[in-house]
Amino acid sequence: MPSITRSPEVGEPLEPLPRKFAAFIRPELPGLLNEIRAEVTRAYPVYGRLLNGPNGDAVRQGVEQALVAFVDRVADPGRSSELRDELLRRFGRVEAYEGRDLETLQGAYRLGARIALRRAKSVGRQYNLSPALILAFADALFSYVEELEAVTREGYAEVRERAASEVFALRRRLLHLILASSPLPQTTVSELCEAAAWELPRTCTLVALRPPAPAPIQAALDGDVLADLDIPQPHLLVPGDLTPQRLAMLGTALSGTRAAVGLTVPLAQAADSVRWARRVLQFVDDGVVPDAPLVRCEDHLITLWLLSDPALVDQLAARELAPLDGLPAGRRRRLVETLRVHVSTRAPAEQVGGILGVHAQTVRYRLRNLDAHLGDRLTDPDRRFALEAALRSLHLRGHDAGD
After folding, report:
1. Within a 10 A sphere around the Cβ of 259, how many other Cβ atoms?
2. Could you say which of 306, 324, 356 is where a domain stops?
3. Do you know which InterPro entries this protein is assigned to (predicted)?
């Protein structure tokens, strides 16, 4: 016996319906179509407005084709449903363009099915059809609605995926422009933000990632985080302050990926934030900063400053330590190490000796030697500060200033 079958994705085959049932239902279609339109637009006013809009003809044609295709398939189970499917996909596209979820349309489908079932019961009484046949019709009808919903979702998903891709591209372009060296015209920024559905923040935090950045990161980020992940130096922009909630989000999204969090800065300084974050990642690679899943720049500001221009620091160190240049290398190295601990801790000889692992008397002897060679460099505040900065920088880089 001919039957309506569901598509493989939807489920098991339906109970069979006799082909002659189509002959009973087909004459009812014009009246049924009008009844469904009236009740659906009353229950869902949005579709009343849609029927009177630019997509009205497509909506009316889609509803009609969905009903006709059902009856045609009862009469001929092998009948193609291509036209119906394309119209249903258009339904889904319209819902996506209108910004609605699919629950409203699914509700309209099911309401239409209940109206059709009510009409079938009336036809059953008119032609004295068996209750078993009406039950089989109900089963076929609601399974058919599931099929309609599945096809509609295809069109809906198509638009949503394309829109998400377009928004992602716009947001990535916006991120590029924010990090560009030249300032952006305000009108350009505003227009791009509107197109990308992104609110321009007052402050932001940049995050540098060690490449390659795994693709799943994007899905775990907050919706307003801008990202550029498939480049040699992947990075993120987190709008606003770095709250505990934002940090927790980053910790989850970047699990297994080494990253450095820049400072929270005004948007105009975003390029500085990502530059600092990348520098800290390099410090981790160089062994200057301890490794961690998520390193924060704010914990290493002095290191960032002291190592911002190593060549200049080398020149500063050479100038301030020039009076020690004539000493033997070993002696010079010991004096410089003692000097570093002394100027950075301001501690007494006993404590300096404990840090260096030498006797306090040895420290005092070295300090007298340093005083003799460096003179007012140790008493003048500016010169002493220059010495401390240079020696700390050299120490962070693992350089032996005594060489």
Report:
1. 25
2. 306
3. CdaR-like_regulators, PucR-like_N, PucR_C-HTH_dom, PucR_C-HTH_sf
Complete edge-to-edge strand list for the sheet that includes strand 203-209: 226-228, 235-239, 203-209, 259-266, 294-296
Number of structural domains (the chain) is 3
CATH number of the domain residue 253 falls in: 3.30.70
Q: Identify whether residues 130 and 81 lie together within a single domain.
A: yes
> Looking at the structure, do residues 130 and 27 belong to the same domain, yes or no?
yes
Residue type, 388: E
According to DSSP, residue 15 is labeled P
Q: Which of 92, 74, 77 is nearest to 149 (CA)?
A: 92
386: containing domain: 310-396
105-to-41, 145, 253, 356 alpha-carbon distances in Å: 11, 11, 34, 77
CA nearest 167: which of 96, 116, 119? 96
> Which residues, including other chains, have CB under 8 Å from residue 360's CB and lie 6 or more apart?
348, 349, 350, 352, 353
Whether 270 and 148 map to the same domain: the answer is no
Q: What is the pLDDT along the chain (403 residues), one digit of tens a residue?
A: 334 444 334 444 445 678 888 888 899 899 988 898 889 889 988 888 777 766 677 778 888 888 899 988 888 888 888 888 988 888 888 887 777 888 888 998 999 999 999 998 998 898 888 888 888 888 888 889 999 999 999 888 887 777 667 778 888 888 888 888 666 677 777 888 888 888 889 999 999 998 887 767 878 888 899 988 888 889 999 999 889 999 999 988 888 888 999 999 998 899 999 999 999 999 998 888 888 888 999 998 888 888 887 788 777 777 877 778 878 888 888 888 877 777 777 777 787 777 787 887 887 878 787 777 777 777 777 777 877 777 877 777 776 554 4
Residues 223 and 354 in one domain: no
φ/ψ of 73, rounded to 5, equals -75, -30
Asked whether residue 25 falls in the same domain as residue 135, the answer is yes
Q: Out of 133, 162, 191, pick the residue that ends a domain.
A: 162
Query: Which amino acid makes up residue 174?
Result: L
Residues 384 and 371 in one domain: yes
Show Cβ contacts of residue 263 under 8 Å, excluding neighbours closer than 6 positions: 205, 272, 273, 276, 297, 298
**Is 241 a domain residue?**
yes
The helix/strand/coil state of 66 is: helix
Q: Is the Cβ–Cβ distance between 291 and 258 less than 8 Å?
A: yes
